[in-house]
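Check out a protein:
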Amino acid sequence: MPLQKTTFNPGINREGTAYDNEGGWFDCNLIRFRAGRPEKFGGWSKLLSATYQGTARALHNFLSLGGVKYLGVGTHLKYYIVENNNAFNDITPLRKTVGAGQTDTTATTFAKVANDDATITVTNASHGAVQNDFVTFSGAASLGGNITAAVLNQEYQIATIVDGNSYTIEAKDTSGNTVLANSSDLGTGGGSIVSAYQVNIGLDVFVLSTGWGAGLWGGTTDGALTTTLNDSGGISDSDTTIVLTDGTGFADGDTIFIGSELITIGTVSTHTLSSCTRGVSGTTAAAHSDGATVQLVTGNASAANDFNGWGQAAGSGVQTAFNNLRLWEHDNYGEDLIFNIRNGGVYRWIENSGTSTRATLLSAATGANKVPTVALQVLTSETDRHLIVLGSDPLETAGDSDNFGNRTGIVDPMLIAFSDQENPLDFETKTTNSAGELRLSSGSLIVGAVKSRQEIIIFTDTSVYSMQFIGPPFTFGLNLINESTGLISPKAAVTAPDGVYYMSYDAFYTYNGVVQQLPCSVRNYVFSDLNQEQSYKINAFTNNKHSEVGWFYPSASSNEVDRYVIYNYLEKVWYYGQLSRTAWLDAGIENYPQAASSSYLYEHEKGFDNDGAEMTGVFIESSDFDLGDGDSFAFLRKIIPDVKFLDDDSSSNVNIVTKTRNFPGDSLTTDNTATVTPSTQQEHMRARGRQAAVRIASNDGDSGNVGVGWRLGALRYDIRPDGKK
């Protein structure tokens, strides 16, 4: 009997069964398609050996006029600038600076907790900090013993919040080693202390909520009920009984917030909360020490004081749902970087000030006029040089308000403000300039926007708009181009060479003058295994070298991004896999795509390894194909592989696994695993069945899997009839 050539249609198809997709591929990981043939992904390696703090969810690169390459990195704890791929420079904006010689002269004092203990209590009235915030001290004097001036005068991450006027830090030397107080540490740090507080950190999880308002940027409001933990040393991550310093005002079924964890109360008895449910709404259960701040999220005497996000409170009812996940949005205005915290302040980093200079509030800049103080997203209009602020705070219009004519400080989720041309500091609408405002009408909030050719595409939670520069007197025009496909997350849209691609709530779409749904052969596979509560972590990406657009997303069993799905717009096929990348930048300014994961930045498409180690878990598996006509058993005698290795190592190898079964309802049985090298001619085997599937997989753990790239051609099997029983 002649050899049977076995080829498969490109792309993965999971919309049917493994049998009805005969002639196709059914499953894969770390595989892409080129010219219809599957091949292994390109590898990656660390861009820097240094790490950043927090989870990075935003990357932006740009060039100075002098040719210096800059990369902005926004995490839930910090914002960094990387210059020429050399180091992480912390430019996180300051929230306030208080103490000696400052406009706010509020004093700061230090006090040890005990001898042989690193915990230091810091007292600073109305500090406004939350747990894990960062503060830098200067001007402090030694406490008299081990807690020297050098120990105190550095950056600290706040360990616990005692109350609104004090918190604790853990003393360390300048290398980060713990320093214990001794009996001589009796001082308070002197009268020259300056405390510089960075903007409050954000959460690393998305928390569902019910409205907008004007709460403090820290996850609560001025009126929210607050107490501290008082539970004989603290609680573990599994304790369901919690003792408070004061339980007055807390009730059965309320939700509280400790650190970055949301907890639902079971029952309340005086100061004891029992039968609590830990780590709700996508937060993670964690241990908390006595003295940690406990805030009432829902159940406050006034609903206006209920917590509904990191820095927002219910009250105005403008928006029905939003997140408190820390997301940064950024764009460069010429050489300078303009960026904002989603739902927070708008900042500017001036390039010629250097990487040792922090970003500052744009509204506080000299010459600033009516500049928005909060935003959902900032971006620049390339050709006409306007700064555009989506979700800007409006101007106060109440004639009897002391703030009349100034920005309210409250995000209007459907308002667009834009500056005068060539002047990002002037947002006052005048007949003599081109500044102005526009309001969207379809939807309840602006989710995100991307720049495309000659237009900006703006997505609300229900609709898609095109914003174009039209010149005076209106400056910009808006066109509603679709009213049925909202954006699933602020970073779920991306611009590719042939149009804009975006992910909605249950399908993928493209826009190139008109919105169209993308036919997707893995749609059900993706959306049925998606953590909807953490969908704001979805980030879209392009890899134009390989004609790919894709989305990193959290699977149903994960609170963090752990998977990807890719659409190859040249070959019009889909594939997917498992890889955690919380932010991505395509090649352009840099030669390789850059991505963020686990406190490191990586360069992709470099070799075929995982940061110098073998890339494991690489495979592609076919759907079932009939052996012969499928109504009889067949016997497989040998396989002739067709694999092109993309390296010059004769020891390179890959496994070709043949599986069989008799009926679609049977489990596949692995009959043969052939380890194929560049010199392999054929592999003899013995297998019997009515239908078969083939799997090509990395030979994990073998030295021949290191540095190996491969592309599959057409396999051939020697198949003989073997009866009908």
